Amino acid sequence: MTKTAGEKEEKAASAGQDLTPPVEKAGKNQASRQSGNLQVVEFLLGKEHYAVDLFDVREVVEYTSITQLPNTPSYMKGIIDLRGEITTIIDLKERLNILEKTEQPIENSRIIVLDEKITKAKTGILVDDVLAVSTFERSDIDSTSASGGGEDAAINGIIKKKIKEKEHEKNELIIWIDIRHLLVDIGQG
Amino acid sequence: MSFIDDMKIGKKLMGGFLIVLLILVVVAGIGYVNLMDAKARQDVLYQKMQGAENLALTNAALEKMRGDIYRYIAVPADRKATSDSLKAQVAIINDNMKEFRSRPLSDADEATLARFDKAWALMQTEYTKLEQMTDAGNTAGVDAGLAAGSPAVTARAECIAAEKELVSSAFTTAAELDKTSSAAAASASMMMIAATLIAVIAGLGIAVYLSKSITGPIDMVANNLKELKKGHLSVRLNLNRKDEIGDMAKTMDTYAAGQQKWVLGTMQKIAEGDLSTQLKAADAQDEVVPALQTTIDSIRALIAEANMLSKAAVAGNFQTRGNTGKFKGGYKEVIQGVNETLDAVSTPVVAAMQTCNEYAKGNFTARFDEKIVARGDVIGFKESINNIGIQVSKALQTVNQQVGDLAASAEEANASVEEVSAGSAQVAKNASGVSVNAEKATAGVEQVQKAMEDLSRTIQDVATKSELVAKIVQDTTNFSKEGMELAQKTEQGMQGITKSSNDVNQIILEIKSQMDKISEIVNLITDLANQTNLLALNAAIEAARAGDAGRGFAVVATEVKSLAVESRTSAERISEMIASLQKQTLDAVDAVSASNTGVKEGSEALHETLASFNKIVSSIDKISQNMSEVAAAAEEQAASVEEVTASVNEVGGLMQATTREATDAAAASQESSAAIDQITKVVANVNTIVDRVTKEVSKFRV
Predict the structure, then answer these.
(1) pLDDT per residue over B463-477, tens digit each?
(2) What contacts 24+ positions apart, CB below 8 Å, involve A64-69?
(3) Nearest residue, CB atoms, A133 vs list B531, B537, B572
(4) How far is CA B674 from the centre of its chain?
(5) Do A55 and B540 touch (CB under 8 A)?
(6) What is the CATH number of the domain that holds B592?
(7) What is the pLDDT of residues B393-425, one digit of tens each?
(8) Same domain, B282 and B204
(9) Cα of A15 to nearest chain B Cα, Å
(10) Confidence of residue B371 (pLDDT cuts 50, 70, 90)
(11) Are B461 and B549 found together in one domain?
(12) Contact (CB, 8 A) for A23 and B554
């Protein structure tokens, strides 16, 4: 796994090209998205790929300087001013106890701003990079294999993404996390 | 004050005490007179006081009469008693005034008293008249009599006034007396103090003077006695006074003078050898003079005996002895001693004469008679006599031995002379050998001269070669200068290279800055691609959320995203290429700087080359200089060789002189042979003399 971030993005880009037909498919299956297809936003935390439900996401913005708040949990990174609105920033790596440090500078990070429906206050999550918007079949998702982590893991399932690497088809594993569950915890905390 | 010294001590003391007593009486007299004076004043005061008492009583009586007369007039019942009272008062006044009159009074007092008497008489008359008028019942007369200005009242007033005056007079007198006595007391105490002081001073002066007059001379006498005790008979007191101390001093002086003149004088004469003095005893008890006379007689006899003995000795008569029976004690010992002295001297002298006789006969084995015991200086005398024999014997033996030695030496001398003779012959032989050797040396010198000529030639060669070297050196110098010029040209070429490579460096740096700018543009493109990517993502999200309506837009978004990714990839490739270009540029820079370093090193090497050429030139100069020195040295050598040749010639001359001298030496040694023959003859003579001396010496017995 010594690939550079550039190569990864290249692959992601090629994956995106591959995914163009499924997006079209997803468009066809728009009405039955609950039962059939899943639309997600893929992003990077350290070396692993994660995904959240597309309908929980409002937009993706670049990193801006974060104002730290005193006397808050360590994953509460702080607040930013997003077009006049105060937005709370959660460091998802801290929240999910990913201890791996990222090599890239924090200025290259992205903030995924979540939909206001799921949170009281406007909230964003800090991730290393946002890769793509993708649509998957339910059959590509394994919901049982990750249940060993229990409720706290907040993992909805593992998405198996088919990618081509040097003419060999291969599954890349994407961890589909339940962002609502995590933020409920925060709200309660 | 010599009269005090002449007084006897008793009188002197009595006189002193009397003076003290007199002073005491004077002091006491002054005190007594003052006391008497005070007593007289006291008496006067007493009288005055008594008088004052009388006057006071009189005054009281007068006042009583004044009252009584009114009582007489006013109280008829008591008239009898009152009349008696009046009479009693009159009696009191008369008594007191009588008493007052008997006291000493001044003239003023007498006058006042007369006034009082007159008034008193009038007052008595008037009072009697008043009584009578009262008895007769003449009230008017009484009133008139008692009215102010009536004779009775006037008289009474006069009486009282006079009496008061007297009292005041008495008190004035008393006050004056008091004043006088105070002054008298003060002066008296002053006098007493003065008198006492004078008495004390006078008493002390007398005491000091008297004690000095007595103890001073006594101390002198005591000191004189101490001096006499030490034998200082010439000390005199010479006190010119007639008291007991003067007598004592005079007796002492007389005694000292007598002792000094007679006893001491005689003893001094004896000491000086003058025995002519004849002394006469002062009286039968005189012990000093007879003792002295005996002493003189004994010494006279002793001297006579000693004279007799010494005259005999001077005459050569050693057998005369002194008569010891005539003397006693120490004098007898003296004569005995003289006798023993004569014995001790005469015996060794006789023995010495015998021994000397033997010596005179040639017998030096004779010795001092051993039976005679020698003492003190006689030991030396005896040994000297013996030593004459011993030493002469020894000397003769030594002479014998020396003569023997001389004979032996003469023979040795003979032998030595023969050896000298032989040596002289040898010298003659050696001298001829020297002559031969000197000739050989002359031949050697000639060879040296030849060698010197060779050396001279060699030096000439050196000079020639030196000139050749000088020419070669000049050529070398020219070549060095050419090399230097070439090196300078090369240096100029090097500087051109350095300049060109600096230009290259400049161009490369410019390329590098252009590259940096391209790099910035590429970064901008990458940034734009990223932004586009983000926008595409957001567009995709929006499209997805829009459902079917957004499906077409989602496709566009995906396309945009892929374009963004491609442009980013291209930008990254450019970036990599530029990076590699920059690396190569840096390499080029390094290469240029390396070539610069090389050029610099070449330049330095050229400098060193130039320096080396300079050194070569200077070295060649030095060589040239050294060659000149060598040439000069060669010339000097040539000169030296000539000098050496001259010296060798001189040596040749010396050698010839040596040959001559050797011939002379041979002649001289023949002459010395003749002298040695002479010496042999002298030695033979010595032998003859020795034989004779030996014969003479053998005549002595040693």
Answers:
(1) 788 878 878 888 888
(2) A64/A111, A66/A126
(3) B537
(4) 88
(5) no
(6) 1.10.287.950
(7) 888 888 888 888 888 888 888 888 888 878 777
(8) no
(9) 10
(10) confident
(11) yes
(12) yes
Signed CA dihedral, B206, B208, B212, B215: sign only: positive
Burial of B532 (0-12, 13-18, 19+ CB in 10 A): middle
DSSP label at residue A152: G
**Nearest Cβ partner of B537 from A17, A39, A60?**
A60
The answer to the question of residue B87 being in a domain is yes
**Structure confidence by residue, pLDDT tens digits, B602-613:** 888 888 888 888
Q: Is B536 exposed, middle or buried, given 0-12, 13-18 or 19+ CB atoms closer than 10 A?
A: buried
> Which tokens in the block code for residue B535?
């926008």
User: Taking Cα atoms as reference points, which of B474, B467, B477, B471 lies closest to residue B632?
Assistant: B467
CA atoms of B203 and A3, how far apart (whole Å) = 154
CA B664 – CA B389 distance, rounded (Å): 61
Instruction: Judge if B202 and B308 occupy the same domain.
Output: no
| B91: in domain | yes
Across the interface, which of B541, B548, B565 has its CB nearest the CB of A59? B541
Picking from A133, A134, A135 by the largest number of B CB atoms within 10 A of its own CB, the best residue to mutate is: A133
B657 within 8 A of B447, measured Cβ to Cβ: no
Structural domain for B580, as ranges: 450-671
What are the residue ranges of helices labelled H in B230-287?
244-258, 265-272
Number of domains composing chain B? 3
**Helix (H) / strand (E) containing A79:** strand A76-82
Rounded CA separation A31/A38 (Å): 12
Q: Does domain A5-188 have CATH number 2.40.50.180?
A: yes
Q: The tokens of B288 are what?
A: 């000093």
DSSP labels for B431-468? HHHHHHHHHHHHHHHHHHHHHHHHHHHHHHHHHHHHHH
More confident residue, B90 or A152: B90
Whether B27 and B131 share a structural domain: yes
Q: What is the pLDDT of residues A52-102, one digit of tens each?
A: 999 899 999 999 999 999 998 888 899 999 999 999 999 988 888 888 777
- What span, in angstroms and rounded, lies between the C-alpha atoms of A18 and B538? 19
